[in-house]
Amino acid sequence: MKNISYTVAVHSDETIKAMVSNCLQDLGGIEKLVPPGSKILLKPNMVVAKPNSTGATTNPLILDTLIEHLMRTSPSEIIIGESSQVGDDTLQAYKITGVYDIAKKWKVTLLDFKKDHQVYVDIPDGKVLKKVLIAETVTKVDYLINLPILKVHSQTTVTMGMKNLKGCIADQEKSRFHRLNLSQCIADLNTVIIPNLTIIDATLCSLEWELGGMPVRLNTVLAAKNVLAADIVAASMLGYRVDEVEHLFLAAQAHLGPADLEEIKIISPKKLKEVQYDRVNSKEFTFYLPGLKVIEKGTCSSCKGALLAAMQRLYKEGSSPDCTILMGQRLRDRENEFASNFKYGTVKSAKPLMSIGQCCSWVANDYPSKQIKGCPVKAEAIYRYLKTIS
Ligand code: SF4
User: Fold this and answer.
1) What CA–CA distance (Å, rounded) separates 245 from 223?
2) Which of helix, strand or coil describes residue 52?
3) Is the CB of residue 144 less than 8 Å from the CB of residue 190?
């Protein structure tokens, strides 16, 4: 029998206000959780300027309810802080999601971490990261509340609380994470940024990928003091075990929380919900053009989004260019999949090669190919080139 030393509160099928309030109550109540007079940081997921209805960003009503509760603790300051993905505008995301209006309503500080002073933080227990550049505000608050949304992710299988903390780091670090080993970097980051409370929005979850799409209604809110515990329970709602989500597995191995579900006490008035669907193959692109082949590894969400947007446009126009697309900071790991078609600069295959983004500029030196420049690249540049060969 395992020692059950972590608690996760789960509420479903109530109003958002009731689910957040009941979760807080199950964990002891807001006055017990948050010391009076604290400087509090709320970290939602505003990765992209898309509303919660897409399943990509945190529901603003969760922030609204939470702030209402927090006001009872007489906080010295409440700050909402986030940095959208590289190339996206955080303020725009705040406005489109409705978080901007919530901040205005409660007169709390709204901060774009991209514009915050950045400081290096040492990671003594990091396996691949030894230090990381993060927004200074994260290091200056008394109480951190992590407010992720549950959704699938093209590289980390699912994303919840631990992955959401990546929004605290500088943009250049986001690229470095992808280059090094995203899952290990997330686990390492979580040894130094440790939220006091994590509330996961599982009301509407994107099953397509991290930037929204195919949203399913789970109408659930989860909360826990330990972020890994919250993530393990949330991942199970999408049918994933700890050992199937690499960053959770690595965090469990580093003893950042429970090893699996058996070490977690779930407080829930109902049986835990599970999404009923054939698990989305989130490792691959879910949108295909028959002539296009994509070989990628370690691609940032912004470049993936640009490619998908270009592909969707071509699809609508009935175009399907014959091309092999190469992308991602770890493309070298898959070089053998296209190298065999080329020898000493002589094309043996009729399919042209196109590399996308700054991180793949080496392809143009080593192989006869077209390079689309940028970091991240623009969907239009990809579209324009593919159109010329359609
Ligand atoms: S080019 Fe794209 S995939 Fe490569 S580092 Fe830049 S944003 Fe990431």
Assistant:
1) 20
2) helix
3) no
Residue 276 is predicted with a pLDDT of 43
Measured between alpha carbons, how far is residue 78 from residues 38, 62, 94, 166 in Å?
A: 8, 15, 16, 20
Pocket lining: 358 vs ligand 1, CB cutoff 6 Å: yes
For residue 329, which atom of ligand 1 is closest to its CA? 4
User: Which residue carries 């899952």 as its tokens?
Assistant: 183
Q: What is the pLDDT of residue 350?
A: 56
Alpha carbons 128 and 241: distance in angstroms, whole number: 24
Residue ranges of the chain with per-residue pLDDT less than 70: 1-2, 208-209, 214, 273-288, 316, 341-350
Is 297 touching ligand 1 by the criterion CB < 6 Å?
Answer: no
Which DSSP category does 196 fall into? S
Report which ligand 1 atom has the smallest distance to the Cα of 327: 3
Domain boundaries, the chain: 6-267, 292-388
User: Could you count the other beta carbons within 10 Å of the beta carbon of residue 125?
Assistant: 14
* Span 6-267 CATH architecture: 3-Layer(aba) Sandwich (3.40)
Ligand 1 pocket test target in 301, 331, 375, 382 with most atoms within 8 Å of CB: 375
CA of 171 to the centre of ligand 1 (A): 11
Q: Is the CB of 300 under 6 A from ligand 1?
A: yes
The closest residue, in CA terms, to atom 1 on ligand 1 is 357
Read off the pTM: 0.76
